[in-house]
Amino acid sequence: MTQFNASESFACSIDLSAHPAQAPIQPIASDPITTTPSIQPSTLSSCVDLSALEGQSSAEATAVESTLIGPLDQPGEAAEEAPAGAFAGFGLGAEILAAVADCGYSDPSPIQKAAIPELMLGRDLVGQAQTGTGKTAAFALPLLARLDPQQRTPQVLVLTPTRELALQVAEAFNGYAAKLPQVRVLPIYGGADFRDQIVRLKRGVQIVVGTPGRVMDHMRQGTLDLSGLRCLVLDEADEMLRMGFIDDVEWVLEQLPQQRQVVLFSATMPSEIRRLSRKYLQNPAEVTIQQKGAENSTIRQRHLVVHGAQKLEALTRVLEAESSEGVIIFARTKAITLTVSEALEQQGYDVAVLNGDVPQNQRERTVERLRSGQVNVLVATDVAARGLDVDRITLVINYDIPFDSEAYVHRIGRTGRAGRQGDAILFLTPRERRFLGGLERAVGKAITPMEVPTNADINQSRLDRLRERVTALVGTPRSDEQELALLSEILQRVGSEISATPEQLALAALQLAVGDRPLLVQGAETWRQPTPSRERQRSGDDDRRGDRRSPSRTGGSRLDASTPPDADMERFRIEVGWQDRVKPGNIVGAIANEAGLNGRSIGRIQIFDTHSTVDLPSGMPEDVFNALRRLRVMNKELQITRHNS
After folding, report:
1. Rounded to an integer, what distance in angstroms lies between the CA atom of residue 151 and that of residue 66?
2. DSSP string across 159-193
C-alpha cells in the first residue's frame, strides 16, 4: 500500500493580464537575461472573456481562425527594439497589433519585452515568471505571428496542468487572434466530450491547448497529429511537476518532431524542471522576472482558524462585526460561491456572485452595481475577479485558502486601493495552518491571528453602526428641506396627539430604523472557538515527516487503512490500483481538474492492488461527485464511492 498526501500540490491559476512597464526596452542578448520589473495591474476584460469558456466543453469553446504573418520554421531577423508604450517594434503584424490595442495593452510588460523578440527568432526559451506578469501574451503573440494558416494540422501545442488554465490560455489566443480569420484554437482536457474533440481536430486546428492526460489519449488513438508541430509550450511547468504530470510531459516530448521550438514557463525552477530544460531545450534564451514585493502596506492582514462545517457561521459573524463598506469573499469553486451567496441572501445581505458561469455583460453590470453601492458583498472565484478594480472595497475575506501565494497577493490587492486602508481576513482549517508561513513570506509581514467574533462583539458592532448612522444624519441630512419640514411636522403632530417627549419620539424613530430584527443578539453564547485536538497533533506530526512515506504494498507504513481521515475530510474509494499502474500524481491531477480543486484540498491517498482510497473535502456537491464517478484514470472509470472502513 502506498500512502501519499497531496497537500503540497497546487493547482495554479493564471492571470491573462499584461502589465505595463515604464522602462525602455533593452536589447536582447543571447546570454541569460534577468529583469526586475515594475509591475502595475491592468485588465483584459475588453479582450478576453474568461467566463465564456470556464466550465464549458470543448464543443462550446470558441474556435477562432486567423491569418499568417510568418511561418514558424523560417526564423527571421531579430525584431527591432520596440519603443516604450508600443508593441509595434516586435514585428507582430497589423492584425495582431490591432487586437492587442483592443485588449487595452499599451506598453509591453518586462516578460513580453524580453521573450517576444527571442520567440520571433524561433529560439527555445526558459521563462521564470510569476502569474500576473503578462506571460501568456509573451508566448501567444509571437507564436500567432508566425503561424501558417494553410497548414490545418496543429502547429502549436500548449500543455497546462489544469483544464481551467487550458481554457484561459485558449481564450487568450482567441482574443489575440480576433482579427485573424483563419486560425483555429482548440482546448482539449478531461471531462469534455472526447468525440467532439475528435470532430474539431478533423476539421483542422492550428493551436491546441490541453492537459497532459487528454493530449496523450488523443496521441495514442491517432486523433491528434503532431507530425507538423512547430512549437511546444509548457505553461506552469512546476505545477505540472507538483501534480505528477512530468512523466506524461516527457512522453509527449519524446513523440514530437526533432525540429521544433520548445518554450518552458515556470514560477519556480526546481531541479527536475532544470533537468527537463537541459534535456529537451536547445541553447534556450533564459528570462527571469523577479517577483515584486506585495504592495500591502495599507492592508491589515489577519487569519482565523475554523473547521469547515463552521465556515458559514464564522463568515456571517465576521461580516456582522467588521466595519466595512464593500466586501469581496473569495471562494475556491463555483459551487461554493453559490452556497455562500445563498446563505448570505437569507441573512439579508445585498450580495452578488462572480464566477465562470457569469457571462461578460452580466459581469460588467455586477461590477458597476458593486462600484455604485447597490451591492455591498461580492462572492467570487479567483479567475472571475481578475482585474477587478473597485475603490470602495474595504474588506477581502479568503473564505477558502488561495491556490498559492501569488493568488493570495492578488486577492488582498482588491482592497487598500487609492491609498485607503483595507482589511484582509484569511480562513484556515486546522490542517491548513501549515501553509500560513508561506503566505507570510510572500507578503513580507505577519498575518496576525484573530478569533471569530462572539455575540458580545456583534452586539457592540451593531450599536456602533447605529450610532454612526444617527450621527451622520444629524450632521448631513439626506432629505431636502421640504421633506425635512414634512417630517418635523409629523413629529410635532404625533408628539402633541400622544403627549410624547422628544426623547420618546427619537426612540420610536430609532426602532423604525432598526426594523424587525432585534438590535442585539439574545441568549447565551453559541460560538465555540476551535481548540487543539488529536487531529491537530496528527497533522503536526505529518508536517514534520512531510507525509512522504516509503511505498509499500504490504502495509509497512505507520498509518494503515484504518486511520481515519482528518477533520473536514471524507474518504472515498476509487476502482484503480497497483495492477493498473496508477500513481498518486495520476489521481491528484485527474481529481483536481474535474472537481475544480487545488492539490491542497486533496488529502491522503492509499493505493491497493485493485483499488485506492483518497481523502477529499467533506460536503462535496453531488454534481461534482457524479462527474468524478465517470472520470477515467489509466483508462478506467474511477467509479468513486464513499468509503466505509
Report:
1. 12
2. E-SSHHHHHHHHHHHHHHTTT-TT--EEEE-TTS-
Looking at residue 28, the DSSP 8-state letter turns out to be: P
CA atoms within 13 A on the CB side of 258: 0
Considering the four listed CATH numbers 2.60.40.10, 3.40.50.300, 3.90.226.10, 1.10.240.10, the one that applies to the domain covering 2-9+38-289 is 3.40.50.300
| E strand map for 491-555 | none
pLDDT at 324: 83
Superfamily of domain 534-642: RRM (RNA recognition motif) domain (3.30.70.330)
- For the chain, what are the domain ranges? 2-9+38-289, 299-453, 457-514, 534-642
Instruction: Decide: 425 and 304 in contact? Cβ < 8 Å.
Output: yes
Question: d(Cα 131, Cα 267) in Å, to the nearest integer?
Answer: 7
DSSP 328: E
Residue 599 to residue 322: CA distance in whole angstroms: 31
| Phi (first) and psi of residue 209, to 5 degrees | -120, 120
Instruction: Tell me the HSE value of 303 on the side-chain side, using a 13 A CA sphere.
Output: 22
On whether the CB atoms of residues 134 and 39 are closer than 8 A, the answer is no
In Å, how far are 170, 205, 220, 437 from 153, measured between CA atoms? 16, 6, 16, 47
At 530-560, the pLDDT tens digits run 554 433 333 333 333 333 333 333 333 334 4
DSSP letter, residue 548: B
- Domain 299-453 matches domain 534-642 at the CATH topology level: no
Q: What mean pLDDT, rounded, does the chain reach?
A: 75
User: How many residues make up the chain in this entry?
Assistant: 645
Contact assessment for residue 438 and residue 325, using Cβ atoms and an 8 Å cutoff: no
- Alpha carbon distance, N-terminus to C-terminus of the chain: 15
Given a contact cutoff of 8 angstroms between Cβ atoms, the answer to whether 619 and 308 are in contact is yes
Backbone angles phi, psi at 405, to 5 degrees: -65, -35
DSSP result, 175-239: HHTTT-TT--EEEE-TTS-HHHHHHHHHH--SEEEE-HHHHHHHHHHT-S--TT--EEEETTHHH
Q: What is the CATH number of domain 299-453?
A: 3.40.50.300
Each residue of 224-248: pLDDT tens digit? 999 999 999 999 898 888 788 889 9
**Minimal CA–CA distance to 170: which of 154, 185, 155, 181?**
185
pLDDT at 242 (0 to 100): 76
In the predicted structure, residue 15 carries a pLDDT above the cut 60: no
Confidence of residue 204 (pLDDT cuts 50, 70, 90): very high
| Maximum distance among all Cα pairs of the chain, rounded to whole angstroms | 97
Query: What does the alpha-carbon distance between residue 615 and residue 349 come to, in Å, rounded to a whole number?
Result: 34
DSSP state of 266: E
- The predicted pLDDT at position 61 comes to 36
Handedness of CA 363, 364, 368, 374 (dihedral sign): negative
Residue 629 to residue 615: CA distance in whole angstroms:
15
C-alpha cell at 319: 461580516
